[in-house]
Amino acid sequence: MTTPQAPTPGELAVLRQRYRLERERRVRPDGVGQYRDTEAEFGYYAADPYAGEPAGRAPLHDTVDVAVVGGGFGGILAGARMRQQGVQRVRIVEKGGDFGGTWYWNRYPGIHCDIESHVYLPMLDETGYVPEWKYAPGEEIRRHAVRIARKADLYRDALFSTTVTSLTWDEASETWIVATDRGDTFRATYVVTATGTLSEPKLPGIPGIEDFAGHTFHTSRWDYAYTGGTPDGGMTGLSRKRVGIVGTGATGVQAVPMLAEDAGHVYVFQRTPSSVDVRDNRRTTAEDVGADRDGWARERRDNYLRIVSGETADQDLVADRWTMSAGLLEKLLPSFRRQGDREAFEAAYEAADAAKMNELRARVERTVTDEATAEKLKPWYRYACKRPTFSDRYYPAFNRGNVTLVDTADTHGIERVTEDGVVVGDTTYALDCLIFATGFSVGASGIHSGKLPVHGRGGTQLLHAWAQRGPRSLHGFTSNGFPNLIQMGSLQNASSVNFTHILDEQAVHGAALVAAAEAGDALIEPSREAEDAWIAVLAEGAPDHEWFHAECTPGYYNREGRGRPNGPIAYPHGAFAFHELLRRWREESIGGILRARTSAPAQAR
Ligand code: NDP
After folding, report:
1. For 253-282, how does the pLDDT look when each residue is reduced to its tens digit (9 = 90+)?
2. Residues near 554 by Cβ (< 8 Å), separated by ≥ 6?
3. What residues make up the domain containing 592?
């Protein structure tokens, strides 16, 4: 890779001005209110295109050791790590027809994970599986989720096509009552919530969106019955169709080249271009990744986390565009570390950012032959403003005669949808099929969304308990008043682009909590003092990068241009340090979270 040229101060000033103008073109007064969810009646949301109508079954009223809400990687890993601790009855309850979560629902053409498969796929050491590609296709990942679930014997008690509707702590028996939309009311000694962060599809609230008379769906519910083909292509049903796709985020960037190959004509409705860096996918061999050594995957994953968490590492094992640009993503870390002189550091950071973005804009220019199209595809913002994407096929797709880029920045997105198609400016684009690659509601799933009420001690609802002073927890996992409830997710915890690694560490921690409680015949419940102490740790290093996001183009990273709230929302020193902290806490202090039971001892329950 050639080192990008550092821009001069004059060039930086011009860039700053350009970024400001591009942001102003895009900020909308309605902010996050511009979206609507997909539970609307007008057919965008097929409940489950893969499982069909769920088979009837009798409601369950039994008792299990652990109930897990959600059968994505979070839930599967929680189950697998519980098994390693000897837990017998683990019941995962999942809305979809099988395990996989994101990888169950998202099967759009071209789907791959853009995090290296050897660090993204969990439990490779334990399953002995070596992914075939450096960046795995969605189906390989979904199959790996199933592989872990089978190995951990999680199918035995699982409930699919079932949504948990409430969780209620029963003081007398000191168990949770889990209610579902299939009439189940079963009991569980422990509950783990693993409901994901980007799981509720969202649609733009474009006027007339209900009126479109052609075929339409969201990318997370791809309708192969209509398009034909598979995630690998062959969508013969589109060969004579005019297809519109709205959205050019990580999903759109993967789907567009596939549509370009198969559809009669593709209109790509873009509001903000993504930055699209080199992909360089290739088959891997076991030798490539050192898979002949015990613990190779753990070592590689830890090395990756070190680098993307801003820690120093002796070597970069993955060596891809994520790790090479990791320094530029520090703005996304909870606490942005400034070494030495703040101004000098900021200046160096900005210069490196500008050099990288210049390199990415030059990539567009080199690849896209039509100058006007190339100009529209160039990203004009700082690297960490939007999620970076990676593809070697996206830009070349715009050199085809059957692909038209429609830039909607000046009109803040598509203005109107009619019976026939999409209106942008003076032009109506007549379409047979309109596909929404418009992403997901952020943080709107599970117990934090209000859609799944959790009643703890004295019937208190979790969100009510948090209404006055905000969320309260120890390490993000457990909360006072909600015994034996283990929350997975990034709130007051830690995060990383390699989210399965985060989930695995959370699963290990959750299983250790359960093992400790079982060993002591106790309840897991932090004291209020422990919560206060944890909030103080978070607050002490709370982020000060709000200004950065306030100057970014709008998107879900910055609440559509409003900036990112500063505050005690995550562990401030990054995921790598957080995992170290948890390990130490488990060794030295886990007993502090245990409380004596008042109900019958375990043998009698
Ligand atoms: P995003 O939220 O990232 O992108 C949504 C897209 O829809 C944006 O381009 C947005 O434009 C556009 N959009 C929204 N409203 C309108 C409108 N009214 N008119 C025109 N365009 C509109 O969703 P994705 O599904 O692409 O990605 C969601 C997340 O899923 C990613 O950030 C990533 O975390 C994950 N993902 C991960 C992958 C992986 O390989 N690991 C692959 C795919 C997704 P604008 O930018 O202007 O708002």
Report:
1. 999 999 999 999 999 999 999 999 999 999
2. 23, 26, 27, 28, 31, 272, 560, 561
3. 63-200+442-526+573-598+600-604
